[in-house]
Write a structure and sequence with these properties.
The protein has about 375 residues and is mainly α. It has a single domain, classed as Glycosyltransferase, CATH 1.50.10.10. It contains 12 helices and 9 strands. Helix 6 runs parallel beside helix 8 and helix 10 packs parallel to helix 12. The two termini are about 35 Å apart.
Length: about 375
């Protein structure tokens, strides 16, 4: 895609997103859907393990950034405030997913230190899940469990450490990354979904999966979370170990994925019932673009940029956008939430929609100028 085509496609995506989001917040106010069922959002209010509450507010911020429409900013602020109390929530490992799309986006637009303190507190809270024996932040499954997903939340702890100068927070974030790298990253560059540890000794016991094909297989969304997370860890630390890890993860994704850029739910499943998991692709587009700007290898930069554009070129077609699906409430088609449980299969995912918008905004703000960018609207 050239710049003109990227702009044209983005206009279509954000027009669709604006329409879908207005319908959602008007007809189902203050609910936090995660996935659709037959194209209709499955609505819920806050739940203990609901990790998706930041992605709706995050989408509202992304549409505001693109359009400058004050209605979207008003709604984005409202939905951000709805999750404010969770800055103290010690029961989940997903605070990055909740506060990065919402309060961090808000702070980036305003520079308001009171807003920033909410983000910092969320990072401090997430760090409380750190297990000294084993050296990892544990998942909501329990103190014995390490999820690959947490790599896409660990940036919140790095950020809190950076903002406060707290060396212990920095230690926690770095140790978590190193433990994840050692026990969930395999020699071929693939990742395991979950690691199980012995609580008495802190020793690693085994890898297993919750949403992939089997324990030793390669679940695509986990790979996407890891690409994002290790790239972000390098951004904070400039530690080449994390850059090398992110590159290995990205190389595996590219080698195993069709030219469309869209992976199956699990690369190892011999005969997958569905060929595409669009939400993993949208997440990867975000991480791959950042990694393209970080790598020290000019050839890798070209490969990662090409992968990013291949993904977005595919996702912004009618085959993946709900532009010709009357009554469909999401934005991005053909996502998968939990295949083993047959939950949210071939549907829209709230995080897939968010990362599609976030990726397009990130590229456009770097590659082109947005005349009426919300970033210039500080008030």
């Amino acid at each position: 895609m050239d710049r003109q085509e990227l702009r044209r496609r983005s206009d279509q995506v954000f027009e669709l997103a604006g329409r879908q989001l207005k319908h959602l917040v008007t007809h189902h106010p203050e609910t936090f859907p995660s996935f659709t069922t037959h194209g209709k959002w499955t609505h819920q209010r806050e739940g203990w393990t609901n990790w998706c509450e930041g992605f709706l507010g995050g989408q509202l911020w992304q549409v505001y950034i693109y359009t400058g429409d004050p209605w979207f900013r008003q709604q984005a602020e409202h939905y951000s405030r709805l999750v404010e109390h969770r800055q103290y929530d010690t029961t989940v490992h997903d605070l990055g997913f909740i506060f990065w799309p919402t309060w961090k986006s808000w702070y980036d637009l305003t520079g308001d230190e009171k807003i920033n303190q909410v983000v910092v507190q969320a990072g401090r809270t997430l760090a409380k899940r750190f297990q000294e024996k084993g050296s990892y932040i544990c998942s909501f499954e329990g103190e014995h469990s390490l999820y690959i997903d947490i790599m896409s939340n660990i940036g919140l702890v790095f950020y809190a450490a950076q903002q406060t100068g707290d060396e212990n927070l920095w230690r926690i974030a770095r140790k978590h990354c190193m433990t994840t790298r050692r026990y969930l990253l395999r020699g071929d560059g693939s990742t395991a979904h979950e690691g199980i540890f012995d609580l008495q000794s802190g020793c690693f016991l085994r890898q297993q999966t919750r949403q992939g094909w089997r324990d030793d297989s390669s679940w695509a969304r986990g790979q996407s979370w890891a690409i994002n997370g290790f790239s972000e860890a390098f951004g904070y630390t400039q530690d080449r170990v994390f850059l090398d890890t992110a590159e290995r993860l990205a190389d595996f994704y590219i080698e195993r994925t069709p030219e469309s850029g869209i992976p199956p739910n699990d690369w190892e499943e011999p005969e997958p019932q569905l060929p595409c998991e669009s939400s993993a692709a949208a997440i990867t587009a975000s991480g791959m673009w950042r990694l393209a700007n970080q790598t020290l290898d000019p050839q890798r930069c070209k490969v990662y940029r090409r992968c990013t554009f291949s993904i977005l070129d595919t996702l912004t077609t009618p085959n993946f956008l709900a532009v010709d699906r009357p009554g469909w409430e999401g934005i991005l088609l053909h996502g998968i939430y939990h295949l083993p449980q047959n939950t949210g299969v071939d549907e829209s995912m709230i995080w897939g929609d968010y990362f599609l918008l976030e990726s397009l905004n990130s590229i456009l703000q770097e590659e082109t100028s947005i005349p009426k960018s919300a970033k210039a609207q500080k008030n």
